[in-house]
Amino acid sequence: MKSPTTRVPLSERPTLTVDEFCGMVGIGRSTFYKAVAAGDLKPRKYGKRTFVTQEEMKRFVEAMPPG
């Protein structure tokens, strides 16, 4: 029998998936991977899954030029 899962708000989770990160920051997946290739974003890997820590998301956003 599968145990019930509780949804934790994104703001309380230590990591975000690529899609969650892109949605919160307002960029697309291709822009995400360009930022990774340029060294502007440092995601974490666990097996085949890619995650971004909350701290890395804050650092990335704060490094963006003002609009």
Please, could you describe this protein's structure?
By secondary structure, the protein is of the alpha+beta class. It has a single domain, classed as Multidrug-efflux Transporter Regulator, Chain: A, Domain 2 (Orthogonal Bundle). 40% of the residues lie in helices and 16% in strands. It contains three helices and three strands; from the N terminus they run E-H-H-E-E-H. It has helices spanning 18-25, 29-38, 54-62; strands spanning 15-17, 44-46, 49-53. Strands 1-3-2 form a three-stranded antiparallel β-sheet. A hairpin with a 2-residue loop joins strand 2 and strand 3. It starts with 14 loop residues before the first strand and ends in a 5-residue tail after the last helix.
β content, as a range? 15-25%
- The number of distinct β-strands equals 3
CATH class category name: Mainly Alpha
What structural category characterises the helix and strand content? alpha+beta
Radius of gyration: 13 Å
CATH topology: Multidrug-efflux Transporter Regulator, Chain: A, Domain 2
